[in-house]
Amino acid sequence: MKFAKLLIAAAVLGASGYAVADDEDQTSTYASQLCTLVASEKSNDSVDNYVQKLETLTARSQPPHAMNNVPFDKEQAGEVAQGWVSLSDEDKKLARSNNQQCQQMIMEQAQPSD
């Protein structure tokens, strides 16, 4: 009986760990996609417009016949877009020229405050 409870607890903890990892992976994916989008832009857009662009890009990148399509998470995408919008103009200029640095800056801004 104790073994069964331990097994269930381990499964629940493992699943919650995967959920956190999936959230981080998805946030990272949205940051990468957003950096690709903004690299060619000269002006800034609103959070809502960036979320819409990310949703469109995500839908296009997933084939309709794929079995493991990840649903678009507007809340996470909004956090990523807000991370971009909150950067200074100087940081945005730098980020537009360096995709890796762009992702890092957005991820730092998009991290939820505890």
UniProtKB/TrEMBL annotation:
Alphabetic keyword roster: Signal
Protein name: Secreted protein
Lineage summary: Bacteria, Pseudomonadati, Pseudomonadota, Gammaproteobacteria, Enterobacterales
Signal peptide: 1-21
